[in-house]
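User:
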Amino acid sequence: MMIRAVTAFPNKKERFAIHEVEAPKAQLWEAIVEVKAFSLNRGDITSAMDRQESSRPGWDFAGIVLEGAASGAGPQKGTRVAGLLPMGAWAEQIAVPAVTLAEIPEEVSFQQAAALPVAGLSALYALRRGGLLLGKRVLITGSTGGVGLLAHQLASLSGAYTVGAARSEGKAEQVRAAGANEVLVGEDVTEAIAANGPYDFAIDSMGGKTLATLFPQLSPQGVCVSLGHSSSPHTTLQMIGLGGRTLYSFFLGEEMNRHMPAQDLELLARLVAEGKLKTNIEVHQSWEQIDAVAQQLIERRFTGKAVLTLERDLSGSIS
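Assistant: Predicted structure:
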């Protein structure tokens, strides 16, 4: 049996295209999921482009269990689920370890669920490094990205006082809507970060000068979680006189070994169902637009999340 799936071609003009491939075959511990929607992350795109050969990309997905695991583990046939794979999730059908699948409520659409796994778990696990956040002053850079917007909402739900960052006043409004108490606005907010400290906890996805500026602004015993370097991968830190402060290097794959991702993803989905968490989907198109949307994501043509649905006739535009 053949199915359709997205294949990445790093050396071709059309870098992402839909082709027919062999249908997945499940191991005893795996379920077969019919994918209804998936979301894009910058890491999906860049890792596929860094390869020298074609590959099957994709992490986030949401859909329906077609075949439950033969072992009896996990959700059974007909269950609405969401999850993530190390690669290959952008396909009509996928084989997934059953214990990693999260059941999603009926109130949560497949599009909303597909936007949650990587961004939602990254935000949740990064915030957990800060311990009890009630009353703490929390700085979140990269505030308008998928992780940043979810992190602001979760931190606000936890009782934190959050400070965000945005390049323009228009984007700042988006961050305020996500629960930020303050937003630092400008193409370069390093001076504002220094002027508005100290911070008890920080999540940084910028790296470079931004990370070098915010780290000395941490309170004694403060923690900064570094989960990206969109500005620069190179940072020089002045550590003298900053004893007690912690810089934590974040990698989602490692964090998932420390937590229970299926249960945590179910938690995030329940918050969406209850109206306490918004997925901030900015782009919603058919998966047949994968190449164009992937290019626009890399070019930072939009903020928030991009979700593609496996329907041929879906129309949509990037705002």
